[in-house]
Amino acid sequence: MKVTIENKKGLNKDLKVLIDKKTMNTYMDEKYEEIKGTINLKGFRPGKVPREILKRQFGKAVFSEVLDKVIKETSTKALQENEIKPAGQPKLDLKTYGEDKELEYVISVTELPKVETKSIENIKFDQYTVKIDEKETDKRINEIAKNQPNFKESPTDTKAKEGDLVIFDYKATVDDKPFKGDEGKNTQLTLGKDLFLKGFDKQLIGVKKDDEKLVEAVLPENFPEKNLVNKKAKFKCKVTSIKNPEKVVINDEFAKNLGAKDLKDLKSLIAKQINDEYKNSLDRLSKNQILKEIEKINVNEIPENLIEEEVKILSQGMKDEDAKKSQKNFEEVAKKRIKVGLILNEFGEQNKIKVSEQELQAEVQKQIRMMPGQEKMVMDFYQKNQSALASLRGTVYEEKIISSIKEKAKAILKEVTKDEAEKILKDSQKKENNDLIDKKEVKEKKPEPKKTASTKSSVKSAKSKSKIKKVSKK
Fold first, then answer.
1. How far is CA 31 from CA 20, 65, 232, 387, in A?
2. Chain-wide mean pLDDT for the chain?
3. Residue 154 sits in the same domain as residue 7
4. pLDDT reading at 310 higher than 70
5. Predicted local confidence at residue 429, as pLDDT
6. Three-state DSSP class for 301?
7. Are 346 and 366 in contact (CB under 8 A)?
8. In this structure, are 90 and 178 located in the same domain?
9. pLDDT band at 437 (very low <50, low <70, confident <90, very high)
């Protein structure tokens, strides 16, 4: 294989690849030997069909398969040997080809620019830790206790009042007729919360154990039997128990009921939970600081094809006229995102950062846990949607890169209280809101897209694989 680089124009270049006739014939011989043992033709023993017979019947198909194989192998090798990382999909133009001929073709490619990542180590960013006061921990535990009241059996003949837990069985009818789901056993209602049917629990105020009470309530809009929606139902209730609330005692037993070893362990877990709530948000601020600093790193040239792809994403859903008006603005945004993506990706490659299958599946499980009750749907979505899985892999990849950058860059350690953390986050949110107002003002002049790309899409563009696109045969 002979490779010549020609027509260099910035990041664009052509690679002329020549495979001599002898090599092409060797590929053809290997293919005919491979198929000889698999083809049965009348009058010939298996594996004994003459080459000329095979050539007459299967020559075109064999050559086409060999051509594809040779192009795939040699084009990839040509790019690798010349250390060219394509920005997007290279194009291929066949010049000379055919049986018993040499193969000559040209790869037109835009390569990714060389980017430096050494200056990343000089980036400064704020890294926060939140000091949680014991009073905050106690306050959170008290809130949990308040929302998990204990109930004790009330004395006989005690009338139910607001705040009591009433346990009852019921049988319901609409227009004196039963319906699907018209029975309930051991139904529990805390009076005054109105969580069953609107106005239902108020009608149970004053009942005693073993009382029978007829309660009327309108069936809601989301009732499964659509023909019964907004109809009045009668519930014949049999009260089986009335329980009075009692103050929860915060002790080791309370802690164990919440899954902790004891009260001390519970306080430790709650303190960590509060810390994580703020730390996750503060970590996002740190990440944004890093990305803003990376934007300042110089990249000499951004591939035009990547800019075009990013602009398409930015203008997605817009009318052509509006998209043209915003073209310059979109190009500037696209350049920033692509530049950040290129630098992050180069840093990831230099530091051999990869996403393992275990890490990807762990992220899938994380997404599943975020959708309780819809676990199967989420799992099916990722199993059947490879692009969504690839996007998720990109998310994990980017987060691993940012974590590695944090280890190498210059962290300014800041320990803050919960109140200080809240102020930092509030100020950040206020700034974001002001930015949104500015964007809204711009929108009145230049329409904004309905959907915008993220840094991840730029990383993905920078990592696009070297796939060859055939554009012509001459």
1. 17, 9, 79, 35
2. 87
3. no
4. yes
5. 87
6. coil
7. no
8. no
9. low
